[in-house]
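Regression test case RT-17, inverse folding.

Input:
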């Protein structure tokens, strides 16, 4: 009998943790993502490759402190998909990641590997020539608090 009461108490406590953790989810979903810049860092003309620096401006308008371990995205130039990449700090322990305090706005930079192909040769040339283009990105941002994780879809342009 005591064993059943202990098990019931343990299950109730675990249910309380899950409920408490779910209270953070609406706050985590408030995070805002904007594509801030896309810059050419390096061009390898022999291999038809370029490295771009893609910067996202991430804002935390909630009253909870959060971190961003992952942003996966597709990058577009003039509405043509040029590839996909990800910003990741998943290999860094949560206390070592950038903390987004309430109201904080932090730029997160990622190196994007661009390869020329038949599908994007005109856009590739425009990018490496640094001609004016309209860039956009869409993907999923993962936001964490001490108790919860939320994945939120985003679409942004500059």
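Golden output:
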């Amino acid at each position: 009998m005591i064993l059943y009461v202990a098990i019931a108490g343990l299950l109730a406590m675990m249910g309380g943790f899950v409920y408490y953790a779910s209270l953070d989810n609406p706050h985590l979903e408030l995070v805002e993502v904007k594509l801030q810049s896309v810059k050419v860092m390096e061009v390898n003309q022999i291999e038809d490759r370029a490295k771009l620096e893609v910067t996202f401006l991430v804002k935390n308008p909630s009253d909870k402190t959060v971190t961003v371990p992952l942003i996966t995205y597709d990058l577009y130039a003039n509405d043509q998909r040029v590839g996909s990449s990800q910003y990741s700090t998943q290999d860094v322990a949560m206390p070592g990641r950038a903390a987004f305090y309430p109201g904080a706005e932090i730029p997160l930079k990622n190196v994007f590997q661009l390869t020329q192909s038949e599908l994007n040769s005109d856009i590739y040339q425009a990018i490496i020539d640094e001609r004016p283009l309209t860039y956009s990105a869409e993907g999923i941002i993962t936001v964490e608090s001490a108790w919860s994780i939320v994945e939120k879809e985003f679409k942004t342009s500059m």
